[in-house]
Amino acid sequence: MTDFNSVTFDTPLELARGEVIKNRFFKSAMSEQLGDKRHDPRPGLATLYSRWAAGGVGLMVTGNVMVDRSALGEPHNVVLDTESDLSLFEKWAAAGRPEDARIWVQINHPGKQIPNFLCKAPVAPSAVPLGAGLEKVFNVPRALTEGEILALVDKFALSARLLREVGFDGVQIHGAHGYLVSQFLSPRHNHREDQWGGSPENRRRFVLAVYRAMRQAVGDKFPIGIKLNS
Questions:
Q1: Side-chain-side CA neighbours of residue 59 (13 Å)
Q2: For 2-21, what is the mean pLDDT?
Q3: Alpha-carbon distance 24 to 57, whole Å?
Q4: Calpha distance 80→107 (Å, rounded)
Q5: Bridge partners of 143?
Q6: For residue 132, what pLDDT is reported?
Q7: Rounded Cα distance, 104 and 222, in Å
Q8: What is the pLDDT of residues 84-132, one digit of tens each?
């Protein structure tokens, strides 16, 4: 059992699957919007993360990287899929290694939370608008079919596998801030009457399917985290 009175900034943190973070300094995800026209990472991302690593941070989580290039949460998002230039991701992944920092990639799908100048027909668990006066900025979504849900699960798994292959140290599922995973979890936004909605068990089925597919894709030891709103 950890003696928390003895924990300091420099105390290493060993995760459940064996990965060791060198200290307790954690940089949470912030959307950098440093993707190029192809939604590959610009060189500035490697520069940014190398400087954070040089400052002594133990673990850095990137801004949200999209799993579907037809669904961007913001302009200039980075996308990681089979069309990506993986050499640019390798340079980004290597940015923190000289300082023994770790870089995890946060992966995301925005669901209906896509500005209407980026997408005219967004998808979501249910055809429920965001409301609260946001109709001017976000279009009413179309409810996903079950086949589309399963395809999105596969997209999360693909992105996780690719980021492991290019040298990142872990992955974080973005399950917060009103994006797709959060939409499935929410009884306000998920009105489905099939196995993907209704009871709490059904509403969390999507994120659990995403996790299991990702775990199969990256193996037993690779760290997988999740960001959730309380």
A1: 25
A2: 86
A3: 8
A4: 9
A5: 124
A6: 81
A7: 10
A8: 999 999 999 999 888 999 999 999 999 999 999 999 999 999 999 998 8
What does the block give as tokens for 211?
């996790």
Closest to 112 (Cα-Cα) out of 128, 123, 126, 127: 123
pLDDT digits (tens, 9 = 90+) for 171-195: 999 999 999 999 999 999 999 999 9
**Which of 163, 161, 56, 65 lies closest to 107 in space, CA to CA?**
65
Torsions phi, psi for 3 (to 5 deg): -90, 100
Average pLDDT, the chain: 95
Query: What's the CA gap between 25 and 176, in Å, rounded?
Result: 21
What sign does the CA torsion over 15, 56, 87, 71 have? positive
Contacts of residue 208, Cβ cutoff 8 Å, sequence gap at least 6 = none
pLDDT at 5 over 80: no
Q: Is the pLDDT of residue 1 over 80?
A: no
Biggest CA–CA distance in the chain, Å, is: 54
Give me the percent of the chain exceeding a pLDDT of 70.
Answer: 98
Structure tokens at 106: 């946060």
